[in-house]
Amino acid sequence: MSGALLGLDLGERRIGVAFVPTGTTIAFPVKTIEVKGREQVLVQIQKLILEHKAEKVVVGLPKTLKGEMGIAAQKRVQEVKWYQSRLSVPMVMWDERLSSKEVERMLIGADVSRERRKEVIDQLAAQRILQNYLDSTIVNS
Fold first, then answer.
1. Domain range for 63
2. What total of structural domains would you count in the chain?
3. Cα 6 from Cα 4, distance rounded (Å)
């Protein structure tokens, strides 16, 4: 992996953000964006792309448990198309099935308080999505 990557776990109220620095293979949680409208989110994503010199944005795709494109996944595809038409770097979608649930179980197992889980779960879900994408591209290259 040569270029930096940005990972997003898009939600209706919050968006988790993760980052893989250039030349590394480890995703790091970055921040959570509070959603106050599509244009505001676009500005935040553009800032993050510039700040981290990201060459690609990986976005979680919420497929059904059977791996099918349900209503949520179809809605996400449309949302990503809107952002893609306004960004200067490519966006790719990556299966995010159960990423938030797995992260939440891990945090509960680590005895993290409900308030703290709420603060970090979106970032950690974005990290998991991005790391899974990265691991897959390393294995398949």
1. 4-139
2. 1
3. 7
Structural tokens at position 93? 């979608």
Residue 53 zone, left/alpha/beta (φ > 0; ψ -120 to 50; rest): left
Task: Determine contact, residues 63/75, Cβ cutoff 8 Å.
Answer: no
CATH number at residue 115: 3.30.420.140
pLDDT digits 0-9 by tens, 86-139: 999 999 999 886 666 666 676 677 766 777 666 677 888 899 999 999 988 875
H or E segment to which residue 34 belongs: strand 28-34
**What pLDDT, in 10s, does the model give residues 39-62?**
999 999 999 999 999 999 999 998
Q: Which two tokens stand for residue 3?
A: 């270029």
Q: Which residue has the tokens 């209706």?
A: 12
